[in-house]
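During the reporting period the student researcher (J.K.) took over the structure-prediction task from the postdoctoral fellow and processed the backlog of single-chain submissions. One of the processed entries is reproduced below for the supervisory committee.
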Amino acid sequence: MQHHRRGRSAAAVVAAAGAALALVPATASALNVTLTDDAGTPQAWSGQPAIRNMSPQVGIGFGPSEKGSYSATFAGPDGAGVSSPIDCYGINTSRTLDFRGNGAYTVTIQQFPDKDYTCKTPSGAPQVYTFSINSGVTLGALTAPVLIREPGSYVTQPVVLPFAGNPGALGYEIRYARNGAIGPDGAIQDTSQQTYVDPATGQVPLRLTDPGSYVVVARAKGFSTGTGQFFSPWTPPVTVKALAPFDFSTTRTVDSRGPSYKVKIQLREKSARGRVSVAVARGKKGRKFHSLGSAKINRKGIFKKRFTLHRTGTYRMRFRFKGSATVAPGTAMSTFRVTKHYLF
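J.K. obtained the following C-alpha cells:
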C-alpha cells in the first residue's frame, strides 16, 4: 500500500494545475470523485453541481482494478484553502470542506502513475472539479398584526415565525429589533435581540414586550475554521406588526353623586391615541345600548366620560375603540349599579 508522502507542497500542485488546466477536461480522470448532496449522500460528480450543504464532503479514490497516486487541493470562493491538501495518496480518502461563504469551490486533482511512489511525474494535466454552494435560510412572514398579550393579562405571549433552515449548518443567528434599520449587508444596524429555532416546533419564537413595528432577519452559521466563521447571507427582513390589546388598567368613578356621573379610565397601554365610543344599557343582559358619545384618550393613556342617568338599577357600559398605531381595535365592558344618589 502506498503512503502519504510529505514534502510535496500544495503550492506546487496548484502551480501545475495553472500550467495545464486548459489541456485536459475534468472528465478525463480515471478517479472516482464524489460530492455529498444536501441530504449528505455522496453522489458521483457530474458537471458543476450546485448545492446548499454548508459542510460538504469530497471523496476521491481509484476503482477496484485501478492503481496509481494522486494529490489534491481544495479552494473556496476567495481562493483560500478549505481543507488540508492531499499529498501523494494511493488509497481512497475524503475531505470535509470548510464553508467560506456562498460561491464557487474548486477541487484540483493531479494523478501520478503506478509505482511513482514519490509523485514526481504527473500523469497528464490536473483535473479541476468545481461546484457552488448557495446556502440560505427562510423566515416566514405574518399576514396580520399580532397581539403581544391577551386582553386583561400582564403575561407576554410568544409570537412565532415559520422557519426553514439550511443543510450542514452549525446553527443559526436570528435577530430582531423594534423599529430596526437594515444596513447594506442585510444586518440590523441598531441594537437587536437574539432568538433561536425551537427544536420542538421548528419555528422561531419572538418575545415582544412592547407594541410597534419589528424587523427580523436570520442567517445560517458555518462551522468555525482556523481563519474564522462564515455565514450564509441574511434573509430579507420580515416585518412584524405588534399591537397591545384594548384593555383597562384601572376604572374609577371621579364623580359618583348623581344624576350626573363621571368615570376615569386608565388604559393598560399608555401609548394608545384616538377616541373611545361609549354606550350604556340598563340591566345585566339584553336591552339595547344607547350611545353616550365618545371620549378622547390623552397623552397618559387616560380618558374620562361624564354622563347622566336618572333611573336606579344595574347598568352595562360598553367601550369601543377603532385601534391606533400601537393598540388593536377592541371592545371592553363594565357593569355598575346606580342607587338613588350614587354610582358604584
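The committee noted the following: DSSP finds one helix and 25 strands in the chain.
J.K. will present the remaining backlog at the next meeting.
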